[in-house]
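User: Structure please.
Assistant: Input sequence and predicted structure:
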Amino acid sequence: MEGWRGTSIALVVALLAGCARNSSPSPSPTPGAPSAATPGATSAPPAPAASSPSGPVLPASLRPIMLQACLADGTPDAWADSPGLAEILDHESGFDPNAQNPSSTAYGLFQFLDSTWASVGATKTSDPYLQCVAGLQYIHQRYGDPDAAWTFWQAHHWY
């Protein structure tokens, strides 16, 4: 899957993250204020992913969905916290399950082409859980684990 967001977006995100670290801290949330969207909701893109010193991490709303998908696929729970998985999803879709590549059929968190959906026995869906099940299955079959998939992505800018 070729990352349509490209490295220029990653550069902007990195620069913005650096600016955020150098600015004053934001006020704490007000007790009783509305919380983040319900996990799996697809009406709006998820909040931006947190970033660790080594790179992005799954948004809090996506992590429980990914853990359920790990269970369904029989892959280790640790995959949900894999730096490689977070990097792929950040580069491919910005963690948006509704991301659509304007110049191809690439769609969803993992930016699967129509043929990729079929290769794992899935059909194109906006459901983040089903996307994660299919995505983890694809990564497991083709690369063995998310970090190996990320290594391949870094060399080729697709996976």
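Confidence is low (pLDDT under 50) at residues 1-43.
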